[in-house]
Every structure is written in structure tokens, then in C-alpha cells.
Amino acid sequence: METKEIIIDGIEYVPKRIAFEKNGMKYCIVRTYSAGVFAGFIEKWNGKEVVIRDARRIWYWEGAATLSQLAMSGTSKPNSCKFPETMDRVTVTEAIEIIECTPKAMKSIAEVPVWRA
Q1: Domain containing residue 97
Q2: pLDDT in tens, 73-111
Q3: Does residue 63 fall inside a structural domain?
């Protein structure tokens, strides 16, 4: 991606990155055909098979109208969401949508209390 700069009063500014990254892996929301929705860092993506690191299942959410809004803004109702604990690694085999998250959304998802039954 091309980086554009702007110079104001002799100071060079560059826009903040939109997608949060860790070791080159982007933090995304992955919607699958039959396993549900996950948020985490995409380690590998081959067709419909996706390996997700530091993955959290998005079992139920409030405070965002859609997954797209959740990926951009996070949730405004973290205590109403049901996100189980983070898994080190999960492989999903029927990914149908991958949405890059903003740093704000990633932080919001991470701050949702762990839901346990």
C-alpha cells in the first residue's frame, strides 16, 4: 500500500494504519459457514481455510449493528457480549468473510469480559 505524507509547517505527517498488525499478521473478524464468527490475527489463509492466532469466538454481541460495524468501531456494550476466552490457534475450513479490524475495534473486542457458562 502506498503511504501518503502531508507536510504542515515543515513537519511531515503520515496517516495511521487502519488494520492492526502483529508480526505481519492482520487482526480480522472471520465469519464462517458453519463454525460461527472469530476475531484474531490471520496467520494463514488458503482458499476457505484460515488459521487464526489469539482467536476469540464472537458468540453473541451487542453494541454494533453488524460485523462490519464491530470491525470498525468495536462494541459499545462490552458487558452484554458473550466472547469466550482467547484460543492460541484455531483453523477454520469454511471461511466466507474476512473483515480487517481497526485498532479501536481490536482493543474493544479484547476488553470484552471472558464469558463462561
Answers
A1: 17-110
A2: 999 999 999 999 999 999 999 999 999 999 999 999 999
A3: yes
